[in-house]
């Protein structure tokens, strides 16, 4: 209700309190407007009078940057996909993947499937008009960063999707060209192929076919090996998407899960060890959603694919023994990170020697030199692909170190990366780290074993076969061996060389990580010594004494992964 009233003393008081909502430099302007205002609004709930113009001004200023509360933009993925009643793939996987990656996810349902771990029993396709209506509801109202598509079961749905994307452009489009479920049931027929190839793919930043889908997109060209995957990626790229990721989860006779990314200029082979599990239902949907989530947060395509792949490998490893349903293929658990933080026993005796691949060791002196906090340095390293992190803070105050360790643990666990503490068992216990790394003059490993919870990782630095033998007797999980090359990080450190490393690997019953002066130019020589229990390299200066830790880590990760892959192929 709007009534004409005179400005009263009470009203002046009211105006003063409203003015407090606004920054000081706008006060005089507001009071001028209030003085000239004769119309009043009445708040129907409180019956209080508010000058109408003032209300308008306050509302206008709320939307501008002058309000005191800063706006919080939430990264947002919209998934356009089918529902899986079993909860493992489709919309349900997308929601879980985005939530696990801390990104908001809205949903446009294209089909409802009756599906479980045995197969797909029924499919009900949404009418295209209703898909269009859902798209409009979300895209016209919400600030969507990235659209991710899954099951697109009719040509009409592909068409209305492309129309919506043109009407409401987004930052990126991730297309997972879902065609057949892993159980072998059809989810989209050949009638959608033309629309996919001609209308949708040219709009995509990345398309993620598995080997069967890559073959169908190319009209039946067989895709049965990594070199077929490379050729397929290049041909699909000609259809217009900026990047193509051909997934090798279903590649026959492969001990690794290898995916090939082609960005229009070059190839990246992304390799993960194949987890031996029946619980792989929904890996494709999850991978595409994780990529979309990382793009929404601002990552590059390569960073997003790497993070997504690492997420899948870790999630599969954590869920490899869970049993859901009676069929051949079960779903996996997207929220392993939560369990890892809250249930210290979840990972009991689950040390994965492959985590030693790229082992980042921090150094407080280097962080000081480059003006970085420990947690910023660790964040950059895990974002770049470090697979395990050790905090080595020789001179830090205990309280400061504990706070930093807690922050680093949160960061590492959000990426599924274990965090170890050098020497300081008290810090490891207090922050519930994943384990410790011990030198020859630190607490003996068998004593540390009695203090730490079962399953916590213990690593020991060894320079001789006798020390390696003792580490095994003491119940350690791995040994660190070096210095392979001369290093400035450790004073008076003896260099054992490549031959010394080889001798230690042969003598050790435990997995080995090489350390000491390792950098991009010599990492291949280290990994090429040809001993199976050498699992990776530990690095300090080559990551942390550099301007961009993340770039250096990415680079080294690519080199060490390639070396491991070649070793396996040889
Ligand atoms: N057993 C496994 N161990 C590790 N990674 C795996 C495994 N199976 C699949 N992956 C990875 O999961 C991702 C999805 O791969 P996949 O080729 O299975 O896709 P998809 O067939 O589209 O998925 P879905 O089976 O859910 O339909 C890829 O990065 C792949 O390498
Ligand atoms: C709804 C749906 N989308 C995608 C897949 C592919 O895994 C599936 N099985 N079900
Ligand atoms: Mg598959």
From TrEMBL:
CDD domains to which the protein is assigned, alphabetical: HMPP_kinase, TMP_TenI
Location relative to the cell: Plastid, Chloroplast
Cited function: Essential for thiamine biosynthesis. Bifunctional enzyme that catalyzes the phosphorylation of hydroxymethylpyrimidine phosphate (HMP-P) to HMP-PP and condenses 4-methyl-5-(beta-hydroxyethyl)thiazole monophosphate (THZ-P) and 2-methyl-4-amino-5-hydroxymethyl pyrimidine pyrophosphate (HMP-PP) to form thiamine monophosphate (TMP).
One Pfam assignment: TMP-TENI
Obligatory cofactor(s): Mg(2+)
Source taxon at top rank: Eukaryota
Protein family: Belongs to the thiamine-phosphate synthase family.
GO biological process, one term: thiamine biosynthetic process
Name of the protein: Thiamine phosphate synthase
Occurrences of domain Thiamine phosphate synthase/TenI (ranges): 358-543
The protein's annotated pathway: Cofactor biosynthesis; thiamine diphosphate biosynthesis; 4-amino-2-methyl-5-diphosphomethylpyrimidine from 5-amino-1-(5-phospho-D-ribosyl)imidazole: step 2/3; Cofactor biosynthesis; thiamine diphosphate biosynthesis; thiamine phosphate from 4-amino-2-methyl-5-diphosphomethylpyrimidine and 4-methyl-5-(2-phosphoethyl)-thiazole: step 1/1
Known catalytic reactions: 2-[(2R,5Z)-2-carboxy-4-methylthiazol-5(2H)-ylidene]ethyl phosphate + 4-amino-2-methyl-5-(diphosphooxymethyl)pyrimidine + 2 H(+) = thiamine phosphate + CO2 + diphosphate; 4-amino-5-hydroxymethyl-2-methylpyrimidine + ATP = 4-amino-2-methyl-5-(phosphooxymethyl)pyrimidine + ADP + H(+); 2-(2-carboxy-4-methylthiazol-5-yl)ethyl phosphate + 4-amino-2-methyl-5-(diphosphooxymethyl)pyrimidine + 2 H(+) = thiamine phosphate + CO2 + diphosphate; 4-methyl-5-(2-phosphooxyethyl)-thiazole + 4-amino-2-methyl-5-(diphosphooxymethyl)pyrimidine + H(+) = thiamine phosphate + diphosphate
Residue ranges of every copy of the Pyridoxamine kinase/Phosphomethylpyrimidine kinase domain listed in the record: 84-327
Molecular function terms, GO-annotated: ATP binding; hydroxymethylpyrimidine kinase activity; metal ion binding; phosphomethylpyrimidine kinase activity; thiamine-phosphate diphosphorylase activity
GO CC terms of this entry: chloroplast
């Amino acid at each position: 209700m709007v009534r004409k009233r005179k400005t009263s003393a009470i009203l002046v008081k009211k105006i003063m309190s409203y003015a407090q909502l606004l920054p000081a430099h706008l006060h005089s302007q507001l009071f001028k407007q209030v003085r000239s205002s004769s119309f009043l609004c009445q708040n129907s709930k409180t019956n209080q009078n508010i000058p109408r113009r003032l209300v308008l001004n306050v509302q206008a200023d709320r939307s501008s940057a002058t309000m005191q509360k800063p706006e919080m933009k939430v990264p947002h993925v919209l998934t356009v996909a089918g529902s899986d009643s079993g909860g493992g793939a489709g919309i349900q996987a997308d929601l879980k993947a985005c939530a696990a990656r801390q990104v908001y996810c809205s949903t446009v349902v294209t089909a409802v499937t009756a599906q479980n771990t045995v197969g797909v029993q029924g499919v009900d396709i949404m009418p295209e008009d209703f898909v269009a209506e859902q798209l409009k509801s979300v895209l016209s109202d919400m600030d969507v960063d990235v659209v991710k598509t899954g099951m697109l079961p009719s040509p009409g749905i592909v068409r209305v999707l492309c129309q919506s994307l043109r009407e409401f452009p987004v930052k990126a489009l991730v297309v997972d060209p879902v065609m057949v479920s892993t159980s072998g049931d059809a989810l989209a027929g050949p009638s959608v192929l033309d629309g996919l190839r001609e209308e949708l793919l040219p709009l995509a930043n990345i398309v993620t076919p598995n080997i069967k889908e890559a073959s169908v997109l190319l009209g039946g060209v067989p895709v049965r090996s990594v070199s077929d995957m490379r050729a397929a990626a290049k041909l699909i790229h000609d259809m217009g998407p900026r990047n193509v990721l051909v997934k090798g989860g279903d590649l026959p006779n492969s001990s690794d899960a290898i995916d090939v990314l082609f960005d229009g200029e070059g190839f990246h082979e992304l390799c993960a060890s194949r987890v031996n599990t029946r619980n792989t239902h929904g890996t494709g949907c999850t991978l595409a959603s994780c990529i979309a989530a990382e793009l929404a947060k601002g990552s590059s395509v390569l960073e997003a694919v790497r993070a997504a792949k690492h997420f899948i490998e870790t999630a599969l490893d954590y869920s490899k023994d869970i049993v859901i349903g009676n069929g051949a293929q079960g779903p996996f658990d997207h929220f392993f990170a939560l369990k890892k933080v809250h249930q210290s026993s979840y990972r009991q005796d689950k040390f994965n020697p492959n985590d030693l691949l790229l082992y980042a060791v921090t150094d407080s002196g280097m962080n000081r030199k480059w003006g970085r906090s420990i947690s910023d340095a660790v964040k950059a390293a895990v974002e770049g692909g470090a697979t395990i992190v050790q905090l080595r803070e020789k001179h830090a105050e205990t309280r400061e170190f504990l706070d930093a360790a807690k922050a680093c643990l949160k960061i590492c666990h959000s990426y599924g990366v274990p965090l170890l503490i050098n020497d300081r068992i008290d810090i490891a216990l207090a922050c519930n780290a994943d384990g410790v790394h011990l030198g020859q003059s630190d607490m003996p490993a068998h004593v540390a074993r009695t203090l730490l919870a079962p399953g916590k990782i213990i690593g020991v630095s060894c320079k001789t076969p006798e020390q390696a033998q003792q580490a095994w007797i003491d119940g350690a999980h791995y040994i660190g061996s070096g210095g392979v090359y001369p290093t400035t990080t450790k004073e008076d450190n003896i260099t054992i060389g490549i031959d010394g490393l080889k001798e230690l690997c042969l003598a050790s019953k435990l997995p080995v990580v090489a350390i000491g002066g390792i950098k991009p130019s010599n990492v291949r020589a280290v990994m090429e010594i040809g001993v199976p229990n050498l699992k990776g390299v530990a690095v300090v200066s080559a990551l942390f004494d550099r301007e961009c830790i993340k770039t250096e880590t990415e680079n080294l990760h690519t080199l060490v992964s390639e070396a491991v892959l070649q070793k396996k192929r040889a």
